[in-house]
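PROTEIN DESIGN WORKSHEET
SECTION A - STRUCTURE
LENGTH: 180
TOKENS:
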């Protein structure tokens, strides 16, 4: 193994080389994070590591536009290990072919589950959580979602309970993964 091969294989963050959203090569940390041996991921569609087909397609739509413009993309999202467990992951990537952004890429994956556990939310709770993080009031959220502000407050109360937060600023900090 060359020094470059060793650096790739033993990097402290998960790394994957992809072609058309298929893993062609990954390192030890990537394999450990997603729960199998390195060779298990060769030629695996990335779709298998997303919670759903909808999530996979959404990232392609949003990320593809940004990759075409800048050649780079990053976000934090929920990913799925091969055993089905969900976890928060910071994903950063560079397209080697920005005109065809997913043809070839280099991606890094960092497991955030220690700082940000996955909490099951209903679709409506997720909507309220996102708008809360955008600084919207209960009345503004109600107008946006077609709900009464009291219903929004009920959703927020459930979110506070699910996340073990006492007040909205603490809840927002937990959503964003910031230390409290």
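SECTION B - SEQUENCE
RESIDUE ASSIGNMENT:
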């Amino acid at each position: 193994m060359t020094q470059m091969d060793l650096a790739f294989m033993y990097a402290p963050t998960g790394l994957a080389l992809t072609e058309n959203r298929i893993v062609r090569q990954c390192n030890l940390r990537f394999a450990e994070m997603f729960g199998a041996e390195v060779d298990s991921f060769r030629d695996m569609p990335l779709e298998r590591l997303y919670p759903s087909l909808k999530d996979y397609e959404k990232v392609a739509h949003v990320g593809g536009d940004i990759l075409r413009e800048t050649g780079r993309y990053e976000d934090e999202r929920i990913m799925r290990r091969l055993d089905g467990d969900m976890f928060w992951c910071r994903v950063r990537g560079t397209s080697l072919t920005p005109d065809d952004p997913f043809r070839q890429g280099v991606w890094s994956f960092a497991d955030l589950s220690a700082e940000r556990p996955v909490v099951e939310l209903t679709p409506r709770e997720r909507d309220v959580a996102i708008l809360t993080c955008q600084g919207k009031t209960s009345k503004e959220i109600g107008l946006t979602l077609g709900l009464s502000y009291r219903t929004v407050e009920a959703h927020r109360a459930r979110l506070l309970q699910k996340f073990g937060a006492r007040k909205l600023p603490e809840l927002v900090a937990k959503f964003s993964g910031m230390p409290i």
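SECTION C - NOTES
The chain has a mean pLDDT of 91.
The helical segments are 3-9, 28-34, 38-41, 53-70, 123-133, 138-145, 149-163, 168-176.
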